[in-house]
Amino acid sequence: MNEILVVGIVLFFGYLGGKLIARIKVPAVTGYFLIGLAFGVSFLKIIPESWSLKLGWLIEFALILIAFTVGGEIKRSTLRSLGRSIFSIVIFETFGAYFLILLAMLLLHQPLALSLLIAAIGSSTAPAVTVLVLNEYRAKGPLTQTLLACVGLDDALGLAAYSVSASLAHSLFLGVHVSVPSLAGLVALGVVISLGLGIIAGLLLSNILRWVRYPLEILTVTLGTLTLIGGLLQLQVGPLHFSPLLGSMAMGFYMSNFPRRRKDVFAPLQNFGYPFYTIYFVLAGARLHIRMLAKLGLVALGYLLGRFTGKVLGANLGATISKAPLTVRKYTGFGLFSQAGIAIGLCLLAAREFPSVSSIVVAVGLGTTIVTEIVGPFSTKYVITKAGEVGKKT
User: How far apart (Å, rounded) are the C-alpha atoms in residues 130 and 343?
Assistant: First the structure.
């Protein structure tokens, strides 16, 4: 086996798996994941875990592309039209899932450090899957707008929650006392710097694009700027940790809302990113230990119940407090079950940062993705149908 052969296997069979699974009306991402599962450590062992680790840079690169795309989905016009209700809904549904997962893990006697990591991983939603379903059924209306805004904004909150949880987990594993106010200050500063550098990168790119004419050149300079800012934000300055994902998301938000040539940036990137998304999901499935997941059956069940309940109750509470329309209050939480994208990336990131619990984190975080990627798309379709928003988009 060599790296080129592994990438070839991942791309070729991942693509075929996605096409086959799509025939039974299931998103292609589930097929990629299942192909990885079949070829990985749980079954055929064609892609051993050591190769997944060697190709980790491809996963990180794909994750930066996903974060950039998520940022591009957050439109100023949508935020203005939804008003304060969207921020209330996002805060409550994100942290509702976080705290209920955390509670479930602690009730099942899991260590606090591990519980914090798993709770952070489960707090975000899969933007790619949700957007795919909404586009497929040409949905348009208040609920659709709310779901689109939620999947972008709650990923940003989920990344911030992971930053805090990972810092706390490091301290707990090392047995070091941490001052919560000082930790909160460091995390907040890291988040602000990450977002600020992402906006600066977007401003830089928009100015460079004034002198760029051809699509391939636009793609090259966009990727160059994106990887440059992503690489810089992976550096650590003293106790400060930065987030390449938040920076990439902020850059995507800027490029989607301010420059005149924003369509020129995202169109070529969609085609270019597709193979990397395939690699990302196949390698994620390849690392899943089914036996470990079976041993953690109750933990996985507690995770799913905590996540689903937190999303539904949190979104309902946030919508009620902000006096959102009835359809938004009733159905938003049920449209946020999908878990992939950022959640898988955080799962793999946690596995790398905390090798002592990596098998448990991967088993719970990735194993439950099989359930969420089957339940999530059908649930989203159901709520937009009940809200009467299917086929409204011309």
Answer: 14
pLDDT tens-digit map of 171-202: 787 776 666 677 778 778 888 898 899 999 99
pLDDT of residue 164: 80
Residue carrying structure tokens 């002198």: 211
Nearest to 383 by CA among 161, 121, 63, 134: 134
Tell me the Ramachandran region of residue 341: left when phi exceeds 0, alpha when psi lies from -120 to 50, beta otherwise: left
Phi, psi values for residue 158, rounded to 5°: -60, -40
The count of other CB atoms within 10 Å of the CB of residue 231 is 12
Return the domain boundaries, the chain: 3-386
Which residues make Cβ contacts (< 8 Å) with residue 212, sequence separation at least 6?
A: 218, 221
CATH code of the domain occupying 3-386: 1.20.1530.20
Q: Among residues 220, 120, 109, which one has the least CA distance to residue 164?
A: 120
240 φ/ψ angles, rounded to the nearest 5 degrees? -80, 130
pLDDT the model gives residue 81: 72
